[in-house]
């Protein structure tokens, strides 16, 4: 079965080819939808089969490489198209194909009637193909192929409705921004890859990691590699300073936001750090950088989420913030907890986005939560599932988000100190607050929409069933990672599962002093209480005392505007970087240097020669006597010359 | 020496085809077109035959196959001497592959003087093939110069409004460089006579004697050759003829210019400058790489702000060819292989871009980006094809451009000669700008609401156009997914050349 891993990559590619080439001819939405969803569904089943096969093997033997063919070979650089099956990659494969399949099915309903229906499914399949390459690759270059491939699909899908406006610009602007910002990150990734090749003479994970374990390489080299790779991660996973593309990515259809910009692609950076954990563990300084960037991104994005009014925008900033948590986990050496959060977040954030899509669908494309209200009686399934997701992300036990988030907070405290825990816990509080602000304004209270023209309705089954599936996963998904203080030693399933992958890294990391169970339970209780308090407060403010929110924004107008305008980071980037580059390229490089200086010099030379020639041309008078005089003069000079030199 | 006559047919068939065209009545345009296409297809088939019997296992940068030698000017030991190795063969294949596609693309766009046009195209093809297979410097020089003439006419007769200015500029610019090369060739031939006893322009003999020259002499000769090649590449800051030539040239001219002619510059650097003057090449590698890297960034930034599609693509060539030169002067097998494959990639991708610009120009008669907008919905096939080609030019993994850029950058990184990561790091940032200028152009042309009423009437690609593009895309994907087919042609050659040059310079790697 393991040998069939390539099918999980190939099937979505075939789906892409069929829908991409024949889609306009097939026309029938059902057929297109079934081909697209089916390709991913079968991939999921194969991944599941492989997962059980791995489960049946002893932990130490759960590692296989399936080589397909030689890709790039020059000298001793030898890059294969090869896939790696191990606990980490198969877990990710299950999440990607599983959540991916659910979202494909949902899209059949959501995209119904769109003129680009076939195109949408072709792109989605292409995305799954690239994502599977990313997570299954057994070397850096193939990972990079997936890495750029998902970026391309993200570009295509953000700009899917390419003729529409988006905020002050267009969807095409948002798409280009995503691609270019990602490319800045990719540039870092490339450099990191080159230094790896220079250091280890290989780009295959197995060979590189084996040499890392042998030691003997200076920490400064690891620092450089880890830093450049992390630059790549900040691009793909929307961390400071390259997070700016993700909020704009909401210009794409909502299933895309759920699949690519919440559940899977944006976690690629986290996956990459986890995959190279052995390198990061050898670069403790950079691990600290990762932790700090993650933490700052988490609280920064959460603060913006507090005041946004677009339902998808709130979720987008929430995603940036949750990704920050995952990097915090990576940075403090809690690799398992980070991947655990990737998984639970995939469930509840995909759920929240799809539920938001259902709301938007039922509200005639309205996305402003100030124009919602009281929707729970119109769309009961969406309401209940959204509420489930909101509780899960807020970290209320026993929902899935609680387990993964708590694990990260605990390791932040244990490995990095109280300050990390505190900021993390405050972020959790903010998260609970903005989620329930969103929830309250949308589903509870009085409807603030125009009752004559807007008739909210529940979405069809093809959309609500995926919501229910994801809601169930959001509830129970955390049980595979119950902390050992409750489940006993060895009771944390996901930890046991991923242990062989992270063992080399963990053995390199410094051991921290033991902490008491009391501390762990106390901190857990405090963070849960804070989240619960935030939920209560949000409901109180937005359902009973809206004046509090209004007066707060009036009392601190500067702060409110700063948050509402997202700290004006986009504007700053534009002023400080983008427009200077364009101006210099246009005015200085092109119109001045190229046209005036370089080409000017060329043309000047030509015209100098021309004017010189037109001067000497005057000697050709055509008067024979003049030529004779010159000739005699020449002979005389030559004569004296020869005489003088004798 | 094993002799083979097959290469002669590569030169003879297009020439004979061109001459035979003379008997065709000018009015029968289609017969002329079919005959031109037929001739170029026969040439392509011959080149495929060469490929099939070519042995890529031969190690060496001075080992040629299918050699043919015929004494030409016996007093000066100048001979008609041709042969191929992996480097020449892959470029010959590029030439014979692009020529029929280009001729096919002119079916509707060239309506005046069809006979003359086809004649010049075939003569041009012969000249280009001649450049790549000559093993005698004198013969090489003849082809090198002769090629200017048909190109001069193609731009000058079938070009745009400022075609005369552009063609004269093209001619003089390149001519200027060549003259110094001629002086250097003669100097070398005279110098060779001191050891061989006779004046010779035989490349293989010069390979043996020239590296023994002192660094000072090598430097003069190196730059005499390199200047001429650098203009052709074009290397920053010698590139200003290119945007003018491209903008004014007819589509077919641009395709051949970008696809093949520019490669003659990089080919010349690899074939002549490096092995003839190994010390000088290494000595000045840093400076040339610096210009190459400047070209990568400069070309990309200037491309970004262009308003004319063709000019944008022209400046992007400056950027891409900068990569190629960087790969050559990294003196690593990876860099060299990357440079060679990138020459092919640029031929395919930029050729395809020029063709695509030509297709739409034929319909709208404007190349200004601002005149378009929102045509993705009107011409879906065209926009999909353009996207694939743009992505290949951007260097998306899975398509051809990535293989070249990746190998070049990795080669520049581990270069024992450049010994500074900054070259590679700065060049790598070019991948960001490539995405900016191409996607921005793409967005302005295809996305948004349809900008003008008349754009609604645009017709999508016809069968012939689609055939041309699909053919190119097959290779774009092929090189991206399974580059081994192409890399192995020059694998041994690149290693041999790099190792030889490094050992002459006493540089030991690992």
Short recap of the structure:
Chain A contains 26 helices and 4 strands. With about 650 residues, chain A is mainly alpha-helical. Chain B has a domain at about 285-510.
List the defining traits of the structure above.
A: 646 residues, mainly alpha, two-stranded antiparallel ribbon, two-stranded antiparallel sheet, 4 strands, B: mainly alpha, globular
Could you outline the blueprint of secondary structure elements for this entry?
The complex is a heterodimer of chains A (646) and B (510).
Chain A: H1 5-26, H2 29-55, E1 64-74, E2 77-85, H3 87-110, H4 117-136, H5 140-158, E3 165-166, E4 169-170, H6 171-200, H7 205-214, H8 219-236, H9 245-248, H10 254-263, H11 268-275, H12 277-281, H13 284-305, H14 311-331, H15 335-362, H16 380-394, H17 400-416, H18 418-443, H19 461-476, H20 484-487, H21 493-508, H22 517-544, H23 546-555, H24 557-564, H25 569-616, H26 624-645
Antiparallel strand pairs in A: 1-2, 3-4
Chain B: H1 6-20, H2 29-52, E1 65-73, E2 78-84, H3 86-109, H4 114-133, H5 137-146, H6 148-158, H7 163-196, H8 203-209, H9 215-232, H10 241-248, H11 251-276, H12 278-283, H13 285-304, H14 309-328, H15 333-364, H16 380-394, H17 400-413, H18 421-446, H19 463-481, H20 484-504
Antiparallel strand pairs in B: 1-2
Helix pairs in contact in B: 1-2, 1-4, 2-3, 2-4, 3-4, 3-11, 3-15, 3-20, 4-5, 4-6, 5-7, 6-7, 7-9, 7-10, 9-11, 10-14, 11-14, 11-15, 13-14, 13-18, 14-15, 14-17, 14-18, 15-16, 15-17, 15-19, 15-20, 16-18, 16-19, 17-18, 17-19
């Amino acid at each position: 079965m393991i040998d069939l891993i390539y099918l999980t990559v190939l099937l979505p590619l075939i789906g892409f080819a069929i829908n991409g080439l024949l889609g306009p001819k097939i026309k029938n939405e059902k057929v297109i939808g079934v081909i697209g969803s089916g390709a991913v569904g079968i991939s999921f089943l194969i991944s599941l089969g492989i997962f059980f096969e791995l489960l049946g093997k002893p932990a130490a033997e759960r590692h296989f490489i399936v080589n397909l063919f030689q890709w790039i070979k020059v000298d001793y650089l030898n890059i294969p198209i090869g896939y790696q099956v191990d606990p980490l990659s198969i877990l990710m494969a299950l999440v990607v194909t599983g959540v991916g399949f659910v979202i494909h099915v949902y899209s059949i309903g959501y995209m119904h009637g769109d003129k680009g229906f076939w195109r949408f499914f072709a792109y989605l399949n292409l995305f799954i193909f690239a994502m599977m390459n990313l997570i299954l690759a057994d070397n850096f270059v193939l990972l990079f192929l997936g890495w750029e491939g998902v970026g391309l699909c993200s570009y295509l899908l953000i700009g899917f409705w390419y003729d529409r406006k988006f905020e002050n610009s267009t969807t095409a602007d948002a798409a280009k921004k995503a691609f270019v910002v990602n490319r800045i990150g990719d540039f870092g990734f490339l450099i990191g890859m080159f230094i790896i090749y220079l250091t280890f003479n290989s780009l295959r994970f197995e060979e590189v990691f084996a040499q890392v374990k042998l030691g003997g390489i200076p920490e400064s080299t690891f620092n450089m590699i880890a830093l450049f790779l992390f630059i790549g991660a900040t691009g793909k996973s929307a961390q400071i300073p390259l997070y700016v593309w993700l909020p704009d990515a909401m210009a794409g259809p909502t299933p895309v936001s759920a699949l690519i910009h919440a559940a899977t692609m944006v976690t690629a950076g986290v996956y990459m750090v986890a995959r190279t954990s052995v390198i990061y563990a050898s670069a403790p300084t950079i691990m600290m950088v990762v932790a700090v960037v993650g933490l700052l991104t988490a609280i920064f994005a959460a603060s913006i989420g507090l005041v946004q009014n677009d339902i998808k925008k709130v979720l987008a900033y929430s995603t940036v913030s949750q990704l920050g948590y995952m990097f915090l986990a990576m940075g403090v050496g809690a690799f398992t907890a980070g991947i655990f959060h990737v998984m639970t977040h995939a469930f509840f954030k995909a759920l929240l986005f799809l539920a938001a899509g259902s709301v938007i669908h039922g509200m005639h494309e309205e996305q402003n939560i100030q124009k919602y209200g009281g929707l729970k009686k119109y769309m009961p399934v969406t309401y209940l599932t959204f509420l489930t997701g909101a509780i899960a992300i807020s970290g209320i036990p026993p929902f899935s988000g609680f387990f993964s988030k708590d694990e990260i907070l605990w390791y932040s405290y244990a490995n990095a100190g109280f300050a990390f825990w505190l900021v993390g816990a405050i972020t959790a509080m903010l998260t609970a607050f903005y989620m329930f602000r969103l929830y309250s304004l949308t589903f509870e209270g009085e409807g603030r929409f125009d009752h004559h023209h807007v008739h909210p309705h529940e979405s069809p089954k093809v959309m609500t069933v995926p919501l229910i599936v994801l809601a169930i996963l959001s509830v129970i998904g955390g049980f595979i990672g119950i902390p050992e203080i409750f489940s006993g030693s060895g009771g944390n399933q996901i930890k046991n599962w991923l242990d062989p992958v992270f063992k080399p890294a963990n053995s390199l990391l410094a051991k921290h002093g033991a902490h008491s169970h009391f501390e762990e339970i106390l901190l857990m209780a405090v963070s849960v209480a804070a989240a619960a308090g935030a939920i209560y407060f949000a409901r109180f403010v937005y359902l009973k005392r809206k004046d509090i929110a209004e007066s707060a924004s009036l009392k601190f107008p500067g702060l409110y505007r700063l948050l509402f305008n997202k700290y004006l980071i986009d504007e700053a980037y534009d002023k400080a970087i983008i427009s200077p580059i364009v101006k210099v390229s246009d005015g200085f490089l092109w119109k001045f240097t190229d046209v005036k200086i370089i080409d000017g010099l060329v043309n000047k030379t030509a015209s100098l020669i021309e004017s010189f020639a037109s001067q000497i041309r005057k000697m050709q008078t055509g008067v024979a006597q003049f030529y004779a005089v010159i000739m005699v003069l020449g002979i005389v000079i030559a004569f004296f010359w020869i005489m003088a030199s004798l | 020496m094993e002799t083979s006559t097959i290469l002669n047919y590569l030169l003879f068939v297009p020439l004979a085809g061109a001459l035979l065209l003379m008997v065709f009545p000018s009015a029968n345009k289609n017969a002329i077109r079919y005959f031109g296409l037929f001739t170029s297809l026969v040439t392509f088939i011959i080149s495929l035959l060469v490929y099939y019997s070519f042995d890529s296992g031969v190690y060496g940068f001075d080992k040629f196959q299918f050699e043919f030698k015929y004494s030409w000017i016996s007093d000066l030991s100048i001979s008609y001497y041709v042969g191929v190795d992996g480097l020449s063969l892959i470029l010959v294949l590029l030439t014979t592959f692009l020529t029929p596609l280009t001729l096919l693309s002119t079916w509707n766009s060239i309506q005046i003087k069809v006979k003359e046009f086809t004649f010049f195209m075939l003569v041009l093809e012969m000249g280009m093939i001649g450049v790549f297979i000559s093993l005698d410097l004198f013969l090489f020089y003849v082809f090198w110069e002769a090629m200017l003439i048909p190109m001069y006419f193609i731009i000058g007769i079938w070009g745009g409004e400022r075609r005369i200015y552009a063609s004269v500029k093209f001619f003089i610019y390149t001519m200027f460089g060549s003259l110094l090369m001629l002086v250097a060739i003669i100097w070398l031939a005279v110098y060779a006579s001191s050891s061989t006893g006779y004046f010779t322009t035989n490349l293989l003999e010069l390979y043996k004697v020239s590296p023994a020259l002192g660094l000072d002499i090598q430097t003069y000769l190196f730059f005499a050759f390199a200047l001429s090649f650098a203009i052709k590449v074009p290397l920053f800051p010698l590139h200003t003829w290119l945007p003018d030539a491209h903008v004014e040239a007819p589509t077919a001219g641009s395709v051949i210019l970008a696809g093949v002619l520019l490669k003659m510059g990089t080919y010349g650097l690899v074939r002549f400058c490096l092995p003839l003057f190994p010390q000088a090449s290494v000595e000045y590698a840093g400076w040339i790489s610096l210009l190459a890297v400047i070209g990568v960034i400069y070309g990309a930034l200037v491309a970004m702000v262009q308003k004319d599609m063709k000019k944008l693509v022209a400046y992007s060539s400056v950027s891409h060819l900068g990569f190629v030169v960087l790969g050559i002067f990294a003196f690593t097998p990876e860099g060299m292989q990357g440079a060679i494959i990138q020459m092919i990639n640029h031929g395919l991708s930029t050729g395809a871009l020029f063709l695509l610009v030509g297709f739409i120009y034929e319909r709208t008669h404007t190349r200004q980006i601002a005149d378009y907008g929102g045509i993705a919905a009107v011409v879906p096939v065209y926009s999909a094809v353009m996207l694939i080609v743009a992505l290949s030019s951007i260097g998306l993994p899975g398509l051809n451009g990535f293989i070249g850029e990746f190998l070049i950058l990795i080669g520049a990184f581990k270069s024992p000669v450049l010994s500074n990561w900054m070259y590679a790091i700065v060049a790598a940032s070019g991948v960001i700008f490539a995405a900016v200028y191409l996607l921005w152009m793409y967005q302005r042309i295809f996305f948004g609401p349809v900008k003008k009423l008349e754009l609604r009437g645009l017709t999508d690609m016809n069968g012939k156009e689609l055939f041309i593009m699909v053919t190119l895309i097959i290779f774009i994907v092929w090189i991206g997914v399974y580059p081994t087919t192409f890399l192995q042609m020059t694998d041994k050659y690149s290693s041999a050349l790099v190792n030889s040059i490094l050992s002459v310079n006493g540089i030991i790697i690992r």
